[in-house]
Amino acid sequence: MDKIVNIDIGGYTRPITGEKRNGDVIYILKNPRYIFFAIIDGIGHGDVANAIAEETKSFLIDNHNSDIQYVIQKAHEHMLGTEGAVIGIGCIIDDNFSFGSLGNINCKIVNAENFDMLSTDGLLGVRGRTPKITSKKLNNNDVIFMFSDGINGNFNSSEFNNYHLFSSEILAKKIVKNSGSPFDDASMITVKVQIT
Fold this sequence. Notes:
This protein is about 20% helix and about 35% strand. The protein is α+β, with helices and mostly antiparallel strands. The protein has a single domain, classed as Phosphatase 2c, domain 1 (4-Layer Sandwich), CATH 3.60.40. Strand 2 (about 25-30) and strand 3 form a beta hairpin. The longest helix is centred in the first third of the chain and has 18 residues, at about 45-65. The model has no long low-confidence stretch (mean pLDDT about 90). This is SpoIIE family protein phosphatase. Keywords: Plasmid.
């Protein structure tokens, strides 16, 4: 009998205190073949960082696919000559999750224990490297957290009473509000996994 994998995904992002334009952007795509999601953090804050992050997001909208390493390398080539950005991409196919990054976008899976995914140092458009891709089979009740460096990554799901009752979008917003630094743009994508 085939497994049924239900995914609830949502995100929240907000700018550094005092700025109207956010240097972080999130992108979430659900299609019949996979779920693709990304956080992009343009270097700096305000208008310049926002323009870089939005340009990177536009590239992803036109060039997403399940080969994360390829997408990141092509995004790096596309962004050459800019101030740069960091990026983290996740992709879910059936009950398999893959994550890759260039720069300090972090990702972890929380359930009975925390599983930290690997990040690769670098900067889109400035200092490209081949990203390490980490893959993991998902389990029932896993929660994936992908977040920018404006979030203190020491949080875990036990800090949020009845977190399983909240949608992923509301959970992302709660974490940004509780663990986000007022001195940086902050972004979070959460993914709740139910397998039956």
